[in-house]
């Protein structure tokens, strides 16, 4: 048997627990595409209520949620305003252009977060020579912002600015539950001023896949058409939806453990030579740090730690990311810090 790896590459590396697998095996299923899967129906009803929206749709991935939302809110040639670090900009295979036919007008926020004044500066009067500005998009929490949490007041201010200009608002909630646990603000409060929101189950919540997109009944009806159009409709998907329901019951509050592990990791990293990090910037489960040791770039340091049983994610020439999650315990943080110390002090 191969030695266990402490995998800090991403919270997508989580695996279903034994209890989650049991819930999946016991799931009552039906034809989801025909609306006959009772477990999927229970999940979407629960998510709609949790996020304070009228209806919801279960989809295979968060990327599909984003792409369908863009396609429903916009028409080809329209413009979406978002942060320069947004997932839709750099991590969805050009989907906004290829699928929805939209243009992305990016805002240079701080750690993935911009304010109402920055958004207002990007707005313009309607001009037939320019793309029609149709949608505001935000990402809670911000991945490339180091897991930074959008303050509730900032979310409400940018949403109000967008609405006053006639734009709809969409929230990428891939790690929304991390924000909920970190700040004590409910998912419904974060989602209140947004026309569409989605939540992911395959990251910190530990399910093997799936995301739920919510909005008005009319929005979800059109989203379902896009679900069929791009191959997102499934059949007996209650087997996976059961894992999502289990996660809502058992894996949300425990995200606080991931946040505590991330803070301890950041504090340990700050004590190592050749590492640049401000532990105060670690708000949730994402830990970004730079390597200043001239012997290593990010790729070389990641390779050296992997040889010692710890997997990190290079994010730039000298930037790395470590992500805490369900499969990472306190002892694993000690192991990771020991491996990094061995490399950097060697």
TrEMBL record:
The modification N6-(pyridoxal phosphate)lysine is found at residue 203. Its cofactor is pyridoxal 5'-phosphate. One of its GO terms (biological process) is L-threonine catabolic process. The keyword Transmembrane does not apply. One of its GO terms (molecular function) is L-allo-threonine aldolase activity. Keywords: Lyase, Pyridoxal phosphate. GO terms for cellular component: cytosol. Residues 7-290 form the Aromatic amino acid beta-eliminating lyase/threonine aldolase domain. It comes from the Bacteria. Belongs to the threonine aldolase family. This is Threonine aldolase. It comes from Mizugakiibacter sediminis.
